[in-house]
Design goal:
Helix content is about 35%, strand content about 20%. The protein is an alpha/beta fold. A 9-stranded mixed β-sheet has the order 3-4-1-2-5-6-7-8-9, with helices on both faces.
Length: about 250
């Protein structure tokens, strides 16, 4: 049986975020609308994150200075590698310490979904420690397409059907593996290589499952330290230059 204290609080947070995002969609200012939308999504995720993790927005970077496209919401662990922050929320996040990247939209439509697929494809080109552990469209960064509404008519074509049309690899190696559209459902491509679906409900179970799965994914990685420890020096070392120990050796000989 669920804990109704936790569940009710999360439902209240989701309802608040949905109201804020949908109100912001009516503002004729794309930049401000996007910012409000990101803050609304953050209102949902921040309270449930384990203490080791934080939320930001910006770009993901690798040790070769290759940058991802803009990421609306990033969940990262600064204990692995510190980000470069330009404000409390805005920054550049090393891929090795980034666990989740969210594309947050007021509305799910074909254009927005194509854009999310393109951003993920570009992000997949980033180098990272033990890249051979993540073949194909897999990555240490879980990529989530999240929307507060949809342009599809209820009872008609599903969001998942639309995604299948846009990604030829949807069945075996999808580019986007997690999708959550408020009022429509939650889809997740599992480690067993099968899609799992949670229908939408009046109490936002599609979003609650996303929250649950996010925390369930993050907690074992804290407890087991399963992610390889990256080296901060790889981000600071001069290009193509090996450390010179001759001066140290000469001083020791004197």
């Amino acid at each position: 049986m669920p804990n109704h204290i936790y569940r009710d609080r999360m439902i209240n947070n989701i309802q608040y975020a949905v109201n804020e995002a949908r109100a912001a969609a009516k503002i004729a200012h794309p930049g401000l609308t996007g910012r409000i939308r990101e803050l609304a999504a953050e209102k949902i995720f921040r309270p449930i994150l384990p203490a080791a993790f934080a939320i930001g927005t910006g770009k993901i970077v690798d040790q070769n200075t290759t940058l991802s496209s803009e990421v609306d919401l990033v969940i990262y662990n600064r204990d692995l590698l510190p980000p470069i922050m330009y404000s409390e929320r805005d920054g550049i996040f090393p891929i090795e310490s980034t666990y989740y990247g969210f594309e947050i939209k007021s509305e799910s439509n074909a254009t927005n979904m194509k854009d999310a697929i393109g951003k993920r494809q570009q992000q997949l080109t980033l180098h990272h420690t033990n890249k051979d552990r993540y073949p194909g469209n897999n990555s240490p960064v879980v990529w989530v397409f999240f929307a507060f509404d949809s342009d599809l008519s209820p009872g008609g074509k599903s969001e998942f059907a639309r995604y299948r049309e846009l990604d030829p690899s949807w069945k075996d190696d999808p580019i986007i593996r997690v999708m959550c559209i408020v009022g429509r459902g939650y889809w997740y491509f599992s480690n067993k290589k099968e899609w799992i679906y949670q229908r939408a409900t009046d109490t936002y179970d599609e979003v609650l499952i996303l929250l649950s799965q996010t925390v369930n994914t993050l907690m074992p990685r804290i407890l087991s330290n399963s992610r390889p420890k990256p080296l901060f020096g790889d981000y600071l070392r001069p290009p193509d230059v090996e450390p010179d120990t001759s001066e140290i050796i000469n001083q020791e000989d004197k």
